Amino acid sequence: MVELEVLTADDWPRWRELRLAALAAAPYAFGARLADWQGDGDREERWRARLSISGSCNLLAALDGTPAGMVSGIPGPRNGVVELISLWVSKAAWGQGVGDHLVHAVEQWAVQERAEVLQLAVAAGQRARDRAVPAPWL
Ligand SMILES: CC(C)(COP(=O)(O)OP(=O)(O)OC[C@H]1O[C@@H](n2cnc3c(N)ncnc32)[C@H](O)[C@@H]1OP(=O)(O)O)[C@@H](O)C(=O)NCCC(=O)NCCS
After folding, report:
1. Where are the domains of the chain?
2. I want to staple 12 with a disulfide (CB 3.0 to 4.6 A). Which of 34, 47, 79, 137 is the partner?
3. pTM score, two decimals?
4. What CATH homologous superfamily does 2-130 map to?
């Protein structure tokens, strides 16, 4: 069963744990680099600030009680636009609908925010070969 939780800044340790795992496991997927959030970059106030972006929504997903994924919705570059960022599901949980739940939750949040456009930025080079369950034609 997939359960979603909306995080506050006080939840930063759990966000940090998953985010560092995401940056380590899928560096090809994100603009940020693992090194940006390690060492001097790995500070409580920084994690709190990340979860305190005005008008944002930050979600953790658990699959059968185990933390399994994350996503954020943040205000976009202009009125009426919001962005989906930081989407990640741990490899052990791929292909079980966690990603779908996270994306749908951000869609619902976008509707509540009265957004007209939900943007998703995808890194160049992202390909279907990374999918959990290989398509029969691959
Ligand atoms: C992409 C990702 C979030 C998918 O998570 P997931 O929990 O495995 O996704 P789901 O099980 O909910 O699958 C949702 C749908 O996406 C499809 N899908 C999943 N990964 C895919 C991929 N890499 N390429 C193409 N389709 C994919 C699934 O087949 C499914 O399609 P369906 O509903 O038609 O059956 C996960 O693989 C991941 O975290 N990857 C590394 C980080 C990343 O790429 N983040 C996105 C940055 S834009």
Report:
1. 2-130
2. 47
3. 0.90
4. Gcn5-related N-acetyltransferase (GNAT) (3.40.630.30)
How confident is the prediction along the chain (138 residues), in pLDDT tens digits per residue?
A: 999 999 999 999 999 999 999 999 999 999 999 999 999 999 999 999 999 999 999 999 999 999 999 999 999 999 999 999 999 999 999 999 999 999 999 999 999 999 999 999 887 777 654 444 443 332
Atom of ligand 1 nearest to the CA of 130: 23
48 CA → ligand 1 middle, Å? 28
Cross-strand partners of 88? 70
Q: Tell me which residue has tokens 């976008």.
A: 110
What is the best residue among 87, 104, 126 to mutate for testing ligand 1's pocket, by most ligand atoms within 8 Å of CB? 87
Spatial CB neighbours of 63, under 8 Å, sequence gap ≥ 6 = 1, 2, 69, 93, 96, 98
List the residue whose alpha carbon is closest to atom 12 of ligand 1.
97
